[in-house]
Write a structure and sequence with these properties.
single chain, mainly alpha, 2 domains, Arc Repressor Mutant, subunit A, 6% strand
């Protein structure tokens, strides 16, 4: 998935987008700590979370309950440890932004490569400005013209959108 790529900085993305995810600052802090611990293969326990966040166990419980309810966090036992998975944050946010989740795959398949973090932001921003069908048209034009860049795709989509207005 795009949020597992080496070039993608998950923590920066969380900080940039937490307001759009309707997260409290405590929930954001918890997600950041969990992501960091996962990246470093640290075992995540309540004691670890309490020490790292300086939150009370009760507050941690409330945050975890809400994050789980929103499908941002999945907790499951694996062997002798507990797995905290926050991938739901990225899937949910991107799907909300793109309306059509397959758009990312369509662009990456058409361009023959994975998109960079900057290109993902551009694509997300573009979906706020123009209709899905216009973006698909722009993708086809980029392929036909062999100009497989996000800047070209964006230019075509914005021009097509303004000419349809």
């Amino acid at each position: 998935m795009w949020y597992h790529q080496i070039y993608f900085n998950r923590r920066d993305w969380l900080i940039d987008n937490y307001h759009r995810l309707d997260l409290t600052s405590d929930e954001l802090l918890l997600l950041l700590i969990i992501d960091g611990a996962n990246q470093q293969s640290k075992e995540i326990t309540y004691d670890y979370l309490k020490e790292a966040t300086k939150l009370t166990v009760n507050k941690i419980d409330k945050c975890i309950a809400n994050l789980t309810k929103l499908n941002y966090l999945k907790i499951k036992p694996i062997r002798k440890r507990i797995d905290f998975n926050i991938d739901g944050v990225f899937r949910k946010e991107f799907e909300q932004d793109l309306d059509k989740p397959e758009l990312l795959s369509l662009v990456e398949d058409s361009f023959g490569r994975l998109l960079s973090q900057t290109e993902l932001k551009t694509l997300t921003s573009l979906t706020d400005k123009v209709e899905y069908d216009v973006i698909v048209y722009a993708i086809r034009q980029a392929v036909i013209q062999n100009k497989l860049t996000m800047s070209y795709l964006e230019k075509v989509a914005l021009n097509e959108s303004s000419s349809n207005s």
